[in-house]
């Protein structure tokens, strides 16, 4: 792309970003908002949290919530970076100023990982088996479903690339929380 006369690269980037934001809002207003896909995404963003609140083990609430927050951070970051690189795109957004799949990043993935952790964290073997099944379901089932309903489009990505990432996120986060919990117990024992 040629640089516009008299604009620095930074000014040109800012101008293009403003135009892109305007186009995203226009597209969202005329293409996404109130479609059945938009309603589905909105429901998937909100409804799982009610289920989570009813079923979460409140005796381990901080530990389990830490799992969810770490998944939220990692999945949001990976989604932003990898979609920015053009590996995939989304055709429907809940909100236009965050054109990512926020129902997955902010709801489905964190809640699923929290429930897997809540139910299977007592043993690494059970946890890895549960995360393997979950990773396969999301990689091959969930992502394929999103492609089928035209919410998600793959470019330079394949579903099987997602599988080790979903699995690695679960294992990494369980390990991090285990380290934090051990340090917390050591600190309590010294008191």
Could you characterize what this model shows?
The chain is mainly α and 191 residues long. It has helices at 9-32, 36-55, 61-84, 102-120, 124-148, 159-190; strands at residues 88-90, 152-154. Strands 1-2 form a two-stranded antiparallel ribbon. Helix 4 packs antiparallel against helix 5 (124-148) and helix 5 (124-148) packs antiparallel against helix 6 (159-190). The model has no long low-confidence stretch (mean pLDDT 95).
Short summary:
The protein is mainly alpha-helical. The protein has helices at residues 9-32, 36-55, 61-84, 102-120, 124-148, 159-190, and strands at residues 88-90, 152-154.
Main attributes of the structure:
single chain; 191 residues; mainly alpha; two-stranded antiparallel sheet; 2 strands; 3% strand
The count of β-strands is 2
Oligomeric composition of the shown chains: single chain
- Mean pLDDT across the residues is 95
Output the strand order for the largest sheet: 1-2
> What is the ordering of alpha helices and beta strands?
HHHEHHEH
**Low-confidence blocks of residues:** none
Computed structural class: mainly alpha
Largest sheet, described in full? 2 strands, antiparallel
- What is the CA-atom radius of gyration, in angstroms? 20 Å
C-alpha termini separation: 63 Å
Helix content bin: over 70%
Tally the helices. 6
């Amino acid at each position: 792309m040629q640089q516009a006369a008299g604009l620095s690269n930074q000014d040109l980037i800012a101008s293009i970003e403003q135009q892109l934001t305007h186009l995203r809002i226009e597209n969202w207003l005329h293409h996404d908002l109130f479609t059945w896909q938009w309603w589905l995404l909105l429901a998937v963003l909100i409804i799982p949290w009610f289920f989570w609140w009813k079923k979460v083990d409140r005796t381990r609430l901080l530990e389990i919530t830490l799992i969810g927050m770490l998944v939220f951070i990692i999945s949001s970051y990976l989604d932003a970076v990898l979609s920015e690189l053009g590996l995939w795109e989304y055709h429907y957004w809940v909100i236009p100023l965050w054109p990512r799949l926020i129902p997955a990043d902010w709801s489905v993935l964190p809640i699923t990982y929290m429930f897997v952790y809540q139910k299977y964290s007592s043993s690494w073997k059970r946890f890895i088996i549960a995360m393997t099944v979950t990773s396969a379901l999301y990689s091959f089932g969930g992502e394929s479903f999103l492609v089928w309903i035209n919410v998600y489009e793959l470019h330079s990505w394949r579903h099987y690339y997602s599988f080790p990432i979903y699995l690695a996120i679960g294992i990494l986060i369980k390990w991090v929380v285990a380290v934090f919990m051990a340090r917390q117990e050591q600190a309590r024992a010294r008191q």
